[in-house]
Amino acid sequence: MINNFIVSGSPHIHNKESVSRIMWTVVISLIPAGIAGVIIFGWDALWVTLVAVFTAVLTEWVCTLLTKKKVTIFDGSAVITGVLLAYNLPANVPLWLPIVGSVFSIAIGKQIFGGLGQNIFNPALVGRVFLMASWPKYMTTFVKPFNYDAVTSATPLAILKEGKILEHISYGDLFLGRHGGCIGEVCILALLIGAAILLIKGYISWQIPASFILTTAGFTYVFGSSPLFHGDWLFSILSGGLILGAFFMATDYVATPLTAKGQLIFGLGCGLLTAVIRLWGGYPEGVSYAILMMNAATPFIDRYTKNRIYGTR
Amino acid sequence: MKSLIKEFTKGIIKENPTFVLVLGLCPTLAVSVSVINGIGMGIAATFVLIGSSVIVSLVKGFIPDKIRIPCFIVIIATFVTITELCLKAYSPALNRALGIYVPLIVVNCIVLARAEAFACKNNLVSSFLDGLGMGVGFTLALVLISGIREFLGAGQILGYTLIKGFEPVFVFGMPSGALLVIGLLLGFINLLKNRER
C-alpha cells in the first residue's frame, strides 16, 4: 500500500516524447523516398545515402569530442542531415562528394554554431549549396531513371530553364518519379507517405508546407507563361525538390519560426523566392536557396510575430 | 634598441593587421584569389604604409588636430598614386589582376589606422619600423589566405598544379569561399590565443 504513494513532482504520466524519438521518426518517414530512389536509380543511390549518413555521424562524433561536449550522435539529428543531403544529390556522384558534403554540413552547418538547436541554417541545405557551388559539374549530371548504365539525362526543370519543350512527361510520371533528378526528390508518392506519417504524429505542422507549396503554385500559375494566369501550377508542384523541401527541410525545428503566424510568413517567403528563382533566376531549381534565405530571416520573423502573453495588452 | 625591434615584430604576429586588428578585410577578401596577387598587393600596401607613416611622422607638428584625417588622406593618396603609376608601367598584368583595389589602398584601414594611431604620435624611426612591420604582417596574412584559396579553389600554387587528379573546390575562388576561409582562420587564431591565456 505504501508503494502506491508517489512523492515525486509532476508529470506522473509521460508520453515519452523526446528529441531523439522525433528525429528517429523523421528518419523512418524518409525511408520510403529512399526505397523509391533505389528502385528508380539503382544501388548507387543506396551507397550515396549510406556514405553520407555514416560520414555525418562520424563528423558529429569527432566534433563533439573536440569541443568536449556531450556526444549526441544517437539522437538521430546527424542521421537526418546525412539522409537529407544524400536525397539532394544525383545518384551517380563520385562517393567523395557526399563525404565532403556531409563533413561540411555537420562541421560548418551545425557544430560551429554550437550543435543541435543553435544552427541558423538547415545543415543539409548548407552542405548541398556548398557542393553545388564547388562542383557544379557533378551536381548537375543526372542519370536516366531505370537505366542502370549511367546514361545521362536532364531534369524536367533544367530542360525548361534551357528553353526547350518538355516531351514525354506526364503528370503520372512526375508523381511516381519516372524522370531524372536527385535521389530523394523524384518520387512524390513516397515523399507524401512520409509526410503523412509526420503530420499524423503531429511532428510537423501544416502551415509551412501548405503556404510554401500553395505560394509556389500560385505564383507559377500567374506568372508562369506568356499570357498571364496560364502557368502550369501542377507541374511546378510535382517537379524539382519542392515536396521534399517543403515537408522535410523547411520544417526543421531549429531554423524556422516558432509561431503559426510566423510559419505562414516563412512558407510564403520560401514559395515566392522559389517561384522567382525558377522563373527568372539563373538556376533551374530554387528550393534550397529559398529555404536558406528564409532561415536567415527567421529571427526577424520571430521578433514580429511574438504571441501575446496572457494578461498583457 | 630592443624596443625598436619590438615595433617591427609586433606587426607580424602580436598585432597582425588582418588577424588581430582585423583591419583591411575588403581588399584581403577580394585580392586573395591567388598567391601572386596576394604578394603583389602586400608589397604595394607595404610601400604605401612605409611612405605615409614616415611623412606623417615628419609633419605631425604642423598638422592642426581638427583636420588631421584629410591631411593623412592627401599624403596616403600621393603614395598610392606613385604605386599605381609604377604598377601600370612595370607590371600591367598585376595591375589588371588587382584591378580597382590598387587605388582603394588609399582607404585601406590599415594605412589610415597606423597613421592615426601610431605615426602621428611617434618619432621617425619607430614609425618607419611600425609601417614596415605592419606591411610584412599584412603580406604574410595575404599569402596564407591566398595559398589556401588558390590550392583548394584552383588546385595550384603560383600556377603550379600540386596534386594530380585533385578536383578543385570552386567555391573557394569566389567571395563566399573567401569569407569562409578568413572566418575559420580568425576562429582558429582566437582559439590559439584563448588557449595561451
Structure in words:
Chain A is an all-alpha fold. Chain A has a single domain, classed as Ammonium transporter fold. Chain A has helices at residues 19-41, 43-66, 77-87, 96-111, 123-134, 136-139, 156-161, 171-176, 188-201, 207-223, 233-238, 242-249, 260-280, 287-304, and strands at 142-143, 152-153. In chain A, helix 3 packs across helix 4 (96-111), helix 3 (77-87) packs parallel to helix 5 and helix 4 (96-111) crosses helix 5 (123-134). With 197 residues, chain B is mostly helical. In chain B, 68% of the residues lie in helices and 2% in strands. Chain B has helices spanning 2-9, 25-31, 35-58, 68-90, 92-98, 109-119, 124-154, 175-196, and strands at 156-157, 160-161. Chain B has a two-stranded antiparallel ribbon with strand order 1-2. In chain B, helix 3 runs parallel beside helix 6 (109-119) and helix 4 (68-90) packs across helix 5 (92-98). The model of chain B has no long low-confidence stretch (mean pLDDT 90). The A-B interface holds A 108, 112, 130, 133-136 and B 167, 169-172, 174, 176-177, 180, 187.
Keywords:
heterodimer; A: 313 residues; mainly alpha; Ammonium transporter fold; two-stranded antiparallel ribbon; 1% strand; B: mainly alpha; two-stranded antiparallel sheet; 8 helices; 2 strands
Structure summarized in a few sentences:
Chain A is mostly helical. Chain A is 59% helix and 1% strand. Chain B has helices at residues 2-9, 25-31, 35-58, 68-90, 92-98, 109-119, 124-154, 175-196, and strands at 156-157, 160-161.
Find the count of extended strands of chain B (DSSP E, 2+ residues).
2
Largest contact between protein chains?
A: A-B, 7 and 10 residues
- Taken in chain order, the helices and strands of chain A follow as HHHHHHEEHHHHHHHH
Roughly how many Å apart are the termini of chain B?
28 Å
Fraction in helix of chain B: 55-70%
Query: Kindly state the mean pLDDT of chain B as a whole number?
Result: 90
Biggest sheet record of chain A: 2 strands, antiparallel
CATH topology of chain A: Ammonium transporter fold
List segments of chain A where confidence is low: pLDDT < 50 over at least 5 consecutive residues. Answer: none
Number of domains of chain A: 1
Distance between the termini of chain A: 50 Å
